């Protein structure tokens, strides 16, 4: 580039931090704006698999990622009393990078990637974009704090409920599809298995699990449901009520986990959703990660966010003066990676949250065979 191009990234999570690093490393002048006062990611476990492994190694942070990684290698399906009914070796879901792949909490991974990006980007906390106006020379942006700026590119890496997508593409309701399930997660006092074991209870159309993570166990509640009228992804009281109603019948040893959810000041709760857009960019505004192609729960969301950020940076660096060519090439390459994962949702749901007692019995029989 003869002149440094400016890029504004909305979102300091996994996708945004990875993009900031690679864009900055390729000579772009990068600013990251984040609504939160500090980085805030859940303790949910995520995977660094397949193409993301090379990206992370290229950033030089794989030693830090491995140091924070969990040691989980199996999932035990139990009854309400905690008696094992079947077991699944998680190596069955290993990707193309084999033993180089890592499981780590979302919070730890996001923190490591953000730290790597600090040398390549300006970070602005407690602020967000309020207006976007495009013209031939760039994108005029107004921030909620009243400041304004002009950028060559704006990238929305701000998640399932993306503000950038709303401003540049249209209302969320036009692009989001409920996939028939809700999920809640929260840190809990103890794990139910050893450090290598996720323990899960299934009831028809519902599941509750405890993951040992590394140092802090994480519980997840999943339940099948039609879209809830008036659902608000920010309404904590509503979220607690929905989970409590879904798990009203006795759940044995997992009752203590439900009690902790009822008392919690903060939980993650959302619809399992899919974002479907005919195009991931509009002029000089592009979408990255869950903002453009959410897999929500049962996909390789973090892996795809990392791989997509690297592809986006590569294509912008290759043709920085040609927004359509760069963003179109990014989308074309990354869609080939995303779409097969999205098609696997129904099979994953049948495995993890069978709809009926018969489905649970069949799943247990199949997983016993897979040992």
Describe this structure in words.
It comes from Nocardia terrae. Residues 6-336 form the FAD-binding domain. It holds the Pfam family FAD_binding_3. This protein folds into two domains: 6-70 and 104-174 and 274-345, 3-Layer(bba) Sandwich (FAD/NAD(P)-binding domain), CATH 3.50.50; 177-273 and 350-369, D-Amino Acid Oxidase, Chain A, domain 2. It contains twelve helices and 18 strands. The chain has helices spanning 14-25, 51-58, 62-68, 106-117, 163-168, 236-246, 255-263, 290-293, 301-318, 323-343, 345-352, 357-369, and strands at 6-10, 29-34, 45-48, 74-78, 84-89, 102-105, 121-125, 129-135, 138-143, 148-151, 153-156, 176-187, 197-203, 206-211, 218-224, 268-275, 281-282, 285-287. Strand 4 (74-78) and strand 5 form a beta hairpin. Helix 1 packs parallel to helix 9 and helix 9 packs antiparallel against helix 10. It is globular, with a radius of gyration of 21 Å.
Task: Write a concise keyword list for the protein shown above.
371 residues, alpha/beta, FAD/NAD(P)-binding domain, D-Amino Acid Oxidase, Chain A, domain 2, seven-stranded mixed β-sheet, 35% helix, NAD(P)-binding protein, FAD/NAD-bd_sf, FAD binding, FAD-bd, FAD_aromatic-hydroxylase
């Amino acid at each position: 580039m003869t002149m440094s191009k400016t890029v504004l990234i909305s979102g300091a999570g996994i996708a945004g931090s990875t993009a900031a690093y690679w864009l900055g490393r390729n000579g772009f002048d990068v600013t990251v704006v984040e609504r939160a006062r500090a980085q805030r990611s859940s303790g949910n476990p995520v995977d660094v698999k397949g193409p993301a492994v090379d990206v992370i190694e290229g950033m030089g942070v794989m030693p830090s990622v491995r140091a924070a990684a969990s040691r989980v290698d199996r999932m035990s399906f139990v009854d309400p009393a905690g008696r094992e009914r079947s077991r699944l070796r998680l190596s069955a879901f290993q990707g193309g990078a084999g033993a180089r792949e890592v499981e780590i909490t979302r919070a730890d991974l996001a923190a490591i990637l953000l730290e790597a990006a600090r040398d390549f980007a300006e970070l602005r906390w407690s602020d967000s974009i309020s207006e976007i106006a495009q013209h031939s020379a760039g994108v005029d942006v107004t921030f909620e704090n009243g400041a304004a700026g002009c950028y060559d590119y704006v990238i929305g890496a701000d998640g399932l409920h993306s503000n950038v997508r709303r401003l540049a593409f249209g209302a969320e309701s036009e692009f989001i599809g409920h996939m028939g399930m809700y999920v809640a997660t929260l840190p809990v006092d103890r794990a139910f298995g050893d450090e290598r074991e996720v323990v899960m209870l299934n009831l028809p159309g519902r599941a509750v699990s405890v993951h040992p993570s590394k140092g802090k166990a994480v519980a997840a509640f999943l339940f099948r449901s039609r879209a809830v009228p008036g659902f608000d992804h920010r309404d904590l009281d509503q979220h607690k009520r929905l989970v409590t109603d879904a798990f009203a019948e006795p759940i044995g040893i997992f009752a203590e986990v439900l009690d902790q959810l009822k008392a919690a000041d903060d939980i993650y709760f959302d619809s399992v959703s899919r974002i479907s857009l005919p195009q991931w960019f509009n002029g000089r505004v592009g979408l990255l990660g869950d903002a453009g192609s959410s897999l929500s729960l049962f996909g390789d969301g973090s892996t795809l966010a990392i791989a997509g950020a690297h592809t986006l940076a590569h294509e912008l660096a290759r043709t920085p003066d040609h927004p359509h060519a760069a963003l179109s090439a990014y989308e074309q390459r990354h869609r080939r990676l995303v779409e097969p994962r999205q098609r696997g949702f129904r099979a994953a749901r049948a495995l993890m949250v069978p709809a009926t007692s018969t489905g649970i019995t069949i799943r247990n029989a199949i997983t016993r065979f897979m040992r």
